Amino acid sequence: MSISKKDLTPKDIVLRLKEDRSFFIDYVERFSIFITQSVGYAPRLSQQYLEDARRAWVDDISRVSDREMSGKELDHFKHASHLCFWLRRMGPILDVFPIDPKIPSDTVGDKGKELDLILKYRNEYLAFQVGLYMCGDFEADDKHPKIDYDYLLTFCHFMRYKHVSPHAIFLIYKSLFMVKEPPYFSESYLNMIQSTK
């Protein structure tokens, strides 16, 4: 799912998410359905928690823009990271339930892993995915990162049980889209490693 629409740019979408309460709620509701439906589940959401998440996100990015960026507009990584933080913090998905209880869930392979994440960390997973897709809309299509289950599991676990700031999430998103090759190691570092053997 992409947040972009044919008639709107990613920047237009972020602006509408900030300015239009109904658009924000509709978008997050549809995104929640998008991620849960792929594994045969549906979300039950709190309208109040969605409104709270939007309000906190808008206040937070306004504060960061004013105090840390001298009033400049934040980039998409900062918008996405603060949105991820507040969606996780407000926890708008109250529950998930099978769309058709008569059909057993796919509990093997990638779908089984995704279902596991949704059942254990529904709000953390939603928050991460919303931010990731927001970043992906601004970045070139060929740079959209493929993220494995262990990474997602660790991220969701940290989001739930540790304090992960929006600034840390910003670094995570930015690094996911920046990495193209394994890290470069200088000759002197490689020589030092080889000499310790």
Summarize the structure.
The chain is mainly alpha-helical and 197 residues long. The chain has helices at residues 10-19, 21-37, 47-68, 76-90, 109-138, 149-161, 166-178, 187-195, and strands at 41-45, 93-98.
What can you see in these coordinates?
The structure is a single chain. The mean pLDDT is 87. This protein has helices spanning 10-19, 21-37, 47-68, 76-90, 109-138, 149-161, 166-178, 187-195; strands spanning 41-45, 93-98. It has 197 residues and is mainly α. Helix 1 (10-19) crosses helix 2 (21-37), helix 2 (21-37) crosses helix 3 and helix 2 packs antiparallel against helix 5 (109-138). It has one domain (10-195). Strands 1-2 form a two-stranded antiparallel ribbon. 65% of the residues lie in helices and 6% in strands. The longest helix is centred in the middle third of the chain and has 30 residues, at 109-138. It is globular, with a radius of gyration of 19 Å.
Largest sheet report: 2 strands, antiparallel
What is the overall silhouette? globular
Weakly predicted, low-confidence segments: none
Strand content: 5-15%
Helix percent reads 55-70%
Q: Cα distance, first to last residue?
A: 48 Å
What is the tally of helical segments? 8
Count the beta strands: 2
C-alpha-based Rg, rounded: 19 Å
